[in-house]
Design brief:
Largest sheet: 7 strands, parallel
Strand content: 15-25%
Helix content: 25-40%
Structural class: alpha/beta
Amino acid sequence: MGAQQLKDIKIMLQRHRTANDPEFGLNSETAELHQLRDYIDAVLNTDSIERLSLEFECFLNEDTDLLIDLGSLMTFKVWGNLVEVSWSSVSLHQKEIECFFEQRQKPLESLRFSTVHLLTGSWADTLEILRTAPTGYQVSLGGLSGAECTDLSDEENKRIFHKQSDDYWGTSRAEDFVTGASEKTPLTADETDQHDA
């Protein structure tokens, strides 16, 4: 089958509504969502994938943090050839992220988290997992929520997750930690106290 030879897959589900349109009806319990997950499972069930982008903006509710749970989609198989990953508007458990990286057979070249919600675990431990994963990849982290991010002030969030300069190649403290450019995790109490002093 042709799908079994796919190397680049991008699944993007976006909302295109006006103010007068009804609310999008999918949630975690609808039959339509289960059918969608079955479809995505089938599409991803190939060992040939090298670059994968999953963007589920349509499941992002402006009033809640309810995003589509991506974990089971990413841990049901070993991704032998995957070198680029982009996850946007999804929710994950720390254990699922850890499992995904434990199954890695090749170092990633690129990893992007955009509007990712951590359901359980901590971002401090998750950043450590990303840091100790097979190295050599570019990292982009933005719009992280859940866990200790819930208690961060806007100032703390900006200090940790926003670029430290306006330069195109600027990086955040979290990204520097993951790539090894910095030795100190930006989410420890000591680091927070140091910057608040």
